[in-house]
Design goal:
By secondary structure, the chain is of the alpha+beta class. It has two domains: about 30 residues, no CATH class; about 160 residues, Roll (Nuclear Transport Factor 2, Chain: A).
Length: about 200
């Protein structure tokens, strides 16, 4: 019976991974984890209820295809740069005055980091503390607002974690970001990282 249940769990996770295009079939899931210690978990639709994200109705594209692709690449490059501990890559993705906020199941962030150097240093600190291999798989990237040099973007990510115990789903995340375009390049000027759950110990702030 346990083998059947295990196979069923792997099949469901494989299907989810297939939809993401992440190639993560066979991913294991950790037990239920609350958004905060002593909490039953995040409230349903917490991100919009807390006005951490603002999702508009279906609408025509607000920028051209090239800008959309460049913005999507910012998210993808952020994920890979983060997972490989490449501070020099991350530094190219943020404006000098960037603000990064990290929240856990509600709109109020538990961490706010200001300025490109501080943000890159903070990611390096988290990377050292984690001591495992993570892979950010971004999806549902929506450019909600855009002008010639500013954009507001939403995105989802699932984060896999490979450690001594195997492969687990480390986090489910919703992002909202402001980006600015200068010198032909889009960069994050504000990045809100909202985690629904975090199955491994959080890095110390």
């Amino acid at each position: 019976m346990k083998e059947i249940e295990s196979e069923s769990r792997r099949a469901v996770l494989g299907a989810v991974a297939g939809l993401m295009g992440a190639g993560m079939a066979g991913l294991a899931v950790a037990g239920p984890v609350s958004a905060s210690e002593g909490d039953a978990g995040p409230r349903q639709a917490w991100a919009s209820k807390d006005k951490a994200v603002n999702i508009g109705p279906n609408a025509p594209p607000v920028c051209d295809a090239l800008d959309m692709l460049m913005i999507q690449q910012c998210f993808a490059r952020y994920g890979m740069g983060h997972d490989e501990g490449l501070g020099d890559v991350l530094a190219t993705l943020f404006t000098e005055d960037v603000v990064v906020e990290v929240a856990d199941g509600h709109g109020a962030p538990f961490q706010v980091v200001r300025g490109r150097e501080a943000v890159v240093a903070n990611f390096a600190n988290s990377f050292r503390q984690q001591g495992d291999q993570r892979r950010h798989c971004f999806t549902n990237i929506i450019v909600e607002e855009a002008s010639a040099n500013k954009a507001r973007v939403l995105a989802y990510a699932l984060v896999s974690v490979a450690a001594h115990g195997g492969l687990i789903l480390g986090a489910a995340v919703i992002y909202t970001a402001d980006l600015r375009k200068a010198g032909g390049m889009w960069r994050f000027s504000r990045l809100f990282i909202g985690m629904d759950a975090y199955t491994t110990p959080k890095p110390k702030v």
